[in-house]
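User: My instructor asked us to take a sequence, write out its structure as tokens, and then describe one feature of it. I'm not sure where to start. Here is the sequence I was given:
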Amino acid sequence: MKTRYILSILLCLLLLSSILSAAIQDDQPQNRRRTRENMRTLWLLRMTRVLELTEEQTAKVFPIVSRIEKEKSEIYKQIGKQVRELRLILREEEPDQDDLKNKINKIKELRNLIKKKDEELEARMEENLTLIQRAKYLMFAANFYRDLRDNLDRARIQRERQRQKIKK
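Assistant: Let's start with the prediction itself. The structure tokens for your sequence are:
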């Protein structure tokens, strides 16, 4: 039961991170990369504060989280590429069935890699955090990404309003 709860939280985080990665995309790839790095840094700093990590815990957790998040970022890029290619195949009048199967399997494989990375992170956190900190971590992770998505949505709405004012 506990494992299912943790996995469901991780799947929610996966979904939210997909939404966020789509939401923050700019025209400039370098800006996107910098934005992702800033989000990761903000996440680490807030996590340290919320979990009240000791210096020893921080020294152990930061490299783990940074490495896994960078690896996940690369996997998400690959997923995005595969999805774009899948869209192109689907636009064809008669899509090649083998191409469709291959793309679907590749996307599933990449999604499974993301799940494994999340499970690895969860296992490493369990090794380095107290029970109370682990509970706080689950709450923090869910709230951080939800709050970030809400803030991005508000910023996008404000930007659209400003563009509309400029057009008038």
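For the description part of your assignment, you could build on this observation: The chain has a mean pLDDT of 83. Try explaining in your own words what that tells you about the chain.
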